[in-house]
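User: I've been trying to design a sequence by hand for this structure and keep getting stuck. Would you show me what you'd pick, starting by listing the structure so we're on the same page?

Assistant: Good idea, let's start from the same input. This is the structure you sent:
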């Protein structure tokens, strides 16, 4: 019993060691967080926290910003290593002015492009990007082109539901967060510090 456990663990370790040895490429990666469950944007914010812990420089782009500031926006505001491009609040369902929404999306994307062309920025988070593409507010092929031609060591994190096949194809790591349960459906209000 003891012996077979040891053997199994040795085999596992040898396999993991071989995988670690094979992983010898060092480059900027694209992480895509999609799906209907909660945890996409907050995961991206966790990666910002990781990056800042190593003194890396971060560009945070946020589409579909709500009227209420999120805790992380308040926390990261004025952080010396974080540059932000936040879409003006009061988007779409408030204004019902499609032309204005498209204009705001384009303005935010123009700021995002500056981050994606700046080798001094180590991590660019593009929060809620998928909606801009799915609503047809931004041209996907132009976005993919800019992301593909970013500085070699720059990491990009993209969030939003219903990511397109093209976004999945250009990404290195893709996670789909499944909605198993959400407190909101039990009539629990969005909670400060957890949901925003
Ligand atoms: P979070 O920012 O909490 O990580 P998210 O980015 O995965 O969430 P979004 O679709 O961007 O999810 O929605 C943001 C807000 O909507 C958050 O307040 C979140 O708690 C809430 N939310 C996320 N998923 C669901 C869901 N399945 N049902 C109801 N509310 C949700
Ligand atoms: Mg989100």
């Amino acid at each position: 019993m003891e012996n077979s456990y040891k053997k199994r663990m040795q085999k596992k370790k040898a396999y993991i060691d071989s995988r670690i040895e094979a992983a010898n490429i060092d480059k900027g990666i694209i992480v895509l967080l999609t799906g209907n469950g909660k945890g996409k944007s907050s995961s991206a914010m966790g990666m910002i926290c990781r990056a800042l812990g190593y003194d890396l420089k971060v560009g945070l782009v946020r589409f579909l910003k709500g009227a209420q500031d999120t805790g992380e926006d308040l926390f990261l505001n004025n952080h010396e290593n974080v540059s932000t491009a936040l879409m003006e609040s009061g988007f779409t369902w408030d204004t019902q002015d499609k032309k204005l929404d498209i204009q705001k999306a384009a303005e935010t994307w123009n700021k995002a492009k500056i981050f994606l062309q700046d080798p001094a920025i180590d991590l660019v988070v593009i929060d809620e990007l998928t909606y801009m593409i799915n609503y047809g507010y931004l041209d996907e092929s132009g976005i993919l082109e800019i992301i593909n031609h970013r500085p070699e060591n720059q990491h990009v994190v993209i969030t939003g539901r219903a990511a397109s096949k093209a976004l999945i194809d250009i990404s290195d790591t893709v996670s789909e967060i499944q909605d198993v349960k959400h407190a909101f459906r039990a009539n629990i209000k969005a909670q400060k510090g957890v949901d925003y």
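That's my pick for every position. To get oriented when you compare it with your attempt: Residues 2-22 form the longest helix (21 residues). DSSP finds seven helices and six strands in the chain.
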